[in-house]
Each structure stands twice: as structure tokens, then as C-alpha cells.
Amino acid sequence: MMPTSDYDPACLPDLLPLYYRRLFPFSQYYRWLSYGGVSKNYFQNREFSFTLKDDIYVRYQSFTTQNELEKEMQKMVPYKIDIGAVYSHRPSQHNAVKSGTFQALEKELVFDIDMTDYDDVRRCCSAADICSKCWTLMTIAIRILDRALREDFGFHHLLWVYSGRRGVHCWVCDDAARKLSVAARSAVAEYLSLIKGGEETVRKVVLSDPIHPFINHSLSVVERYFCQYAIVEQDILGSKESVDKVLALLPEDILSFPVVLSQYHIKKGGQYFDKEIMLQYCYPRLDVNVSKGVNHLLKSPFSIHPKTGRISVPIDLKELNTFDPFEVPTISLICEELERPRADEAEDDDVKDKENEQEAGERHYKRTSLAKYVKVFDRFLEAMARSRKGEMLQKSDLQKDF
Amino acid sequence: MQFPGRRKKVIGSSQNDLYDHCLQFYGQPPLENISLTEFETFAVERLKLLKSVENIGVSYVKNSEQYVKKLDAEFSSLNFPLRTELGDRRVQGGTSEYEKRRKDHISHFILRLAYCQTEDLRRWFIQQEMDLFRYRFGELTSKHKTDFLHKNNLKYETVSAEEKKSLKDKLITSSYGLSGITVEEYDFYKVPFQDALDLVRTRKVYLLAGNAYIPHHEIVTIVLNDFRTRLSKALAMTARSLPAVQSDERLQPLLSHLSHAYVGQDYSIQKNMGKISLEQIDALSGKSFPLCMRHLHKALRENHHLRHGGRMQYGLFLKGIGLTLDQALQFWRSEFVKGKVDADKFDKAYAYSVRHMFGKEGKRTDYTPYSCMKVILSNPPSQGDYHGCPFRHSDPELLKQKLQNYKVSPSGINQLLPMLAEILELVKGMHYQLACQKYFELTHNVEDAGFSLNHPNQYFTESQKLLGGGLEIKKEVDMSQRSQENPANMTRPSQANSKQAHEEMGDLDSFFQDE
């Protein structure tokens, strides 16, 4: 259950304008989506979609400058913001383009992990609800996918974002990732998928020899969390019903000899039932369709979730174990914080901030709980900038430009 | 390609370089002149070869020993290149290796002309050419494989011995059938993962820092990907220049005949329209429907509803067995109305889609019933769907139960279990169509189905034949008749040289009549 005592969706029409005027980190956002200005018109050809008041949905929004982006968002006051692909032409002019030539060219490789996809293995919540007991599933998902995307696929610039309600998103922003074809995206997503089957399938994970290194890596993450998560928090052995569910994953004849489930080492004839069970309960469930499409639209970081009021904030992987979705600031919280100075601000910061406030158009998120999340985003952008610089130096060295 | 005349021009040994490897990517079209006779013969023989590739591929596990043996035999009898060495050894009274390679080259390009026109034709052609290529590449020695890669500019970086050593355990567990020794001895190639998508997708390869570590014997998959991409592009380009070729009246009949011969029975021409009554459907579903359609029918009866994927697959099948549009509308309406849909809503929403299936709405395409390939490969079912191929898409345990529940044979309970086991083995090995054929044998109590299954309506037709059905099913095999009915066919008054073409086409007819 999520406490939403301080957030009331009815207040959105009042809070959003304030959010877009003084809190949304436009300059970082623009910096991100410009990717160093290496590709011409990269920002200008990016599609955004907005959901406005009364569920009015508009696609093919595009902007030429950061300033225009700000003005438009402040004017339209979107309830939801999605980011799409970088097209061959400005999306806002797509109707003027000869049919067939307007095409999605590039986009970040994205992943969407949604807690509802785990309903068959969570006992504490279902549907849109989450709690601290099942949040561990997200932690496991992030650890497994982050490792694989970096070590196996060689990607470096990953932005993990809390979706605002019941899941997380990953934006893989490397150059190579943005240029991937549909087939490549789908291949990556399938490589990362171990859970197969819908409601008709009981046993959703099937392992056989040899066990691929990727699976072994993932298993070691799952094993770290399994005891605490599944046995304690989810209490999967706590009722006959849930024990039966576990047993349903084993072949029938295995029940003819005594099984001590807490041992987790049930191996029969080269098969790995213990591993399969752990994976079925904990391994990340991806929606391949989200990752496949180059033109797929995904919720933007720093947008608001209208039902919960939470901001889609970047997640600092260094603090992953202590990340608490219920601590993520809501729009009402940060708007409230804007009105009052924070009691624990150091003297010097206070002075600096007051000075900065004097400057017109200064972002005030620094005085709110949003600040630390923007810092995570800053570090992410810094790393990409360093990387681009490194590449340019390499290139100029090769060309012997000094 | 130029087709100026009938005289055969002999090209000298300057062409030797072109054919110094027994395998090729078909990058360069042939530049010589050939006679019409050769044109026709080459085309027909390659088509026979590709058809064999398809049939053998359905009957035997691809690249197994039997598969290879069968294909070797086909190759020899059809005179396609088999030996890796060119040699001057002329087979007494037969064709030299060189000539076989030349035929291989030219026939491939001729068939491109015939098979570039529609998506379906292209897909089929590419599939068979790829299987053919895979088989031939697999038969090469290691040295010849490397030669081929070099000749075709496929520079894949080999992994150094030290790196292999440090990654040994990972490499062993990432590919089936590798041991410490093989890792040491065999070459591994480092390829950017984007070039090895099929292996990445199925997790059959080790990935590190964006590179896939491919064992030598898997390099064929990479090469195949390349082959497919090139061929696909080439076919698209060929399609664009096709009108010029089609205007040549000597070639047009042959080319169109070739491509129709492939399609064979697509069950779009309903010769049995109106011969089935709605009351018969329940009984027929148990006796003569393949499992997928039986499953769909049952789900429709039970839930009084089917989702889009199911309606398409089942609805088109029913059209193929002979339901008229009116019957179809009656059938679907009566079922849906028993469920949550009232007659009004049915007429508004669902009737349109039924008429659409019969080509009476929208762009008025008369949709053809789905073949097995289409059912197996496209649009996998998800929660709440009943379409797809049960041998492919159902859980093996559920499939087993289902098969046991459909009381298939009064005499065969003892027979039943091993046959079921066989079916499940075939499913595991991914021979869904063979599994369905076995299901046919099981339910009809025959040892051998007697046909190679690739279409649900074919299953129905064969079943009705066997049961001596109440329907007269005319076999649509008279190819030359069909090509005359085809409006796209611009047949000209016969000329002296087209008599020969007719004889060749007659030959082709009899070949396909055996299907």
C-alpha cells in the first residue's frame, strides 16, 4: 500500500504549472537529449508525446531549442510526457513530408520492468500495488540486467529510472545502442529473457546443460536475495496453497523421495529444479515489445505519475539496496518544499542559493528533495560527456589533428 | 541478362576464375549468352532441387546424417556441384564439375526472376536457398570454409590463444558440444554481437563487451545471416527490373509457370464451395481437422468467442474447406450470440471481419488460408488466445493431456503411448509438422500419412480422401490450365520454339503431380 496522504490528484492542475516553471531540470534534460550536439538536429528531430488534461493525447511534438521546450511545456502543462525516437525530419512537420520518407532513425535501447508481470509469484500485492516486500524483485532485476548490459553487451551509459508507481525503466544511451535495428533490439531482449509462457504454462523456466554463463551470473544474484525475499518476505512456504504452487514446478516422481526444500540442491539427472524455481520466482520479466520498437514511446524521466504524484527519478545504483520507492518525492512535497527553506541547509549553501535565486529562471529544485536525484542525473551526463570527449580525442589522434 | 537468341555461345577458360570455388554467394550475375533450352532446363532442375531441399527438410532433421545423405543423392542425380576440387576429371559421358558450377550459378539467377514478385515467393525462395547453402557450407572442409570467407571478404577476427585460455570455462558452457580440448584446438571468431543476432537471441554463444565468441563450426550461422540479407536485397532489386524481362514473350510463360508451381495448392480456389453443411462441422472437427483447428473449434464452442488471431486462422481454414460467406456468417453469428455478443453487435463489429476474409470488404483481397509455416512462425498466441500450432505453442504436458483426451483410437491404447512419445519427441526436436503428421496417423489408424504436411487444409483434404468423405475433392494439379486462367499471364499465339517450352512445362506438370 502506498501512502498518498500528502498527494491529491485533484491538485495537479495547480501543481504542474509550478513544477514546470521552477522545478523541472530543463537544462540537464536538454543536455541529455542533445548528446553533445554531435549529430545535427538530434534534439530537433526527437518525438515527444504529451497527455494533457482530460486525457487528451498528442503525438509528434518536437522542439527546436531548450527555450522552446520550456515554453511549450509551461504552456501545455502535460500530465504525462513520453519520449519517442529521433526521426528523419522534425516530428511536428511529419505531415508535410513525402509519404514513406518520414522514418524513425534512432532511439535509446529501453527496458520496462513492471511489477504486475510478477503477479503469479507475489503473495503480498497484486496489480498496481507494490510494497517493500516485493520491491526486492526490482532490485534483483536491476542488478541482473545492469550487469548483463554492461559486461555482456559492452554498454556503458545506462540510466535507471523509477517509473513512479510499480516498476523501473532502463535507458541505454550509448551511441551503439541508439543505432540498433529492430532485430538487434529484439535479440538483446530475448537473450535477457528466461521466463517463457503465459497463464497456460506452469513451469516457466526450463534449464538444460550447458548452463550459459549469463544464466550463472543471474543465478548468483538471485541466490543472494532468495532466502530473504522468497522464504521470509514472500513466505512462499507459509501456506499449503503457496507450497503447492512451488511443488507444481517439480516433476511428479520427485515427490517419491523426501525433499528438504530449504536445501535448494535438488538435482535429478542433470536437471536443475532448484535453480528453475528460484528463477521463476525472482528473475526479471521483460516486455520484449517495449524494447523492440525503434519508435516506441516511453515515459520520460522527471515526468510525474498522475496517480501517485511521484516523480520518475533516476536511481543511483550505488545506493540501490537502500532505494525506497515510498521515499521518492511527490510533486506536492516538492512544491511545498519550494515554499519553505530547508532547515538542514548549511549556511554557505543558503547564501549561495539565495544569490542564485536572484537570477531569473534559476531552477529551484536544489532546495527540494528532488535535488539529490538531479545530481544522479548530472553524474550520468558527465560520464557521457567524458566518454564523448575521449572518443573525439581518439579520432583526432588517428587523423593526426593536433 | 541478355537473351538475344537460341545459339549457344561457348565461353572459354577465362571463366575458370569465376568458378574456382564450389560454393558462392551469387554476387555477380552471369554475363554470358545461353540458349532457351539451357535456360529452361537449368531453371527446372534447380526448382526440383529446391523442392527436394524443402521436402527432405520436413522429413528429416536438418543437417543430420540422413538429411545429408538424401541431399547428396539429389545433388548427384540433378547434376549440381558436389566436389570441392574443380579438377579436369571429366566424368565419363557426364558433366564436369565446372559445368555443374556454371549451372548452379545461372539457375540461381533465373529463379530469382521467377521468385522475386511477391513476399511469399521471396520468403520461400530465400528459405530454400539458405537451407541449401547451409548444407553445402557444412560439407566444406575447414580449409575451404576459411577460403570461402576470405574470398568473400568476411573478415572475422580470430580469438588469440591466451584469450581462449582465460575464457575457457565460459566458452565451454556457452555453446553446446564444446569441451576443453575443442576450445583449445578450434578457432574462435570474435564478431560484434550485431552480426550474430541469431546466436545472441537464442543464447548459443558467449558474449563479452559487446562481442560474440563464435566457434568455427557456428560461423555458418553468421555467414547465413549475411547470405539472407544480400539475397533479400537482391530480390527486391530484381523485382524492380522484372517488367523488362516479363515483356519477353519467350520467357514470360516459363517464369510464371515456375512461380505458380511452387505455390501449389494454396486453397484459395474453392472447388468445394457449399459442399459442407454447418451441422457437419462438429463431426468433421473430430475426424478430419488438424489439431490446431480442432482446438480452435472446441474453444469457440466452449467460450462462444474467439479473438482476432483465432478468428483469422480458423475462419480462413473454414473458407478453404468450402464454407460459403453466408454459411460463415451464420456459423460465427450463431456461436457469438450464445456468448456475450448480441446479434446487433455481431453485425456491426464481427460480420465486417468475416466478409473481409472473403474479400468482400476493404481492399478486397481474397485472403488465403494460413499454411503451417505461417501458423507456426507468425503471431504466437498469448494469454486468452487459442490460435497457433499446438505442437509448437502448447506446453508439452498440456499437449500430452490433450492428445490423450481426444480418444483417438479404440484399438490403440497400447499403440497410443509410444506414438504419443514419438509425437512429443518430434515436438522437442521442433518438427511440429511431422508431429502433426504423426497425429494424423494416430487418428486415422494408418502407418504412413502418405503426404508431407504443410497446410491445415491439406490435412483436411487428405483426411477426407482417406475416409472416403462425402465430398468430391478435385485435386488442383493441372498446372498449365491454371496458368492459362491466370489473368496476369500474357500468352501469345504459339510459335515454333514455344512448342519445346510446352514440352518442358509438361514435364514440370508431371513432376508436381506427385505431390
| Separate helix tally of chain A | 13
Q: List SSEs of chain B in N-to-C order.
A: HHHHHEHHHEHEEHHHHHHHHHHHHHHH
Strands of the widest sheet of chain B, in order across it, are 1-2-4-3
> Any idea what the radius of gyration of chain B is?
26 Å
Strand content of chain B: under 5%
Structural class of the secondary elements of chain A?
A: alpha+beta
Low-pLDDT runs of 5+ residues of chain B are: 1-16, 470-515
Helix and strand content put the structural class of chain B at mainly alpha
Number of strand elements of chain B? 4
The helical percent of chain A reads 25-40%
Shape of chain A: globular
Number of strands of chain A: 10
Rounded to an integer in angstroms, the radius of gyration calculated over CA atoms of chain A is 23 Å
Secondary-structure element pattern of chain A, one letter each: HHEEHEEEHEEHHHHEEHHEHHH
| Oligomeric form | heterodimer
The largest β sheet of chain A comes out as: 5 strands, antiparallel
Q: Whole-Å distance between the termini of chain B?
A: 33 Å
Instruction: Pick out the low-confidence regions of chain A.
Output: 1-5, 256-270
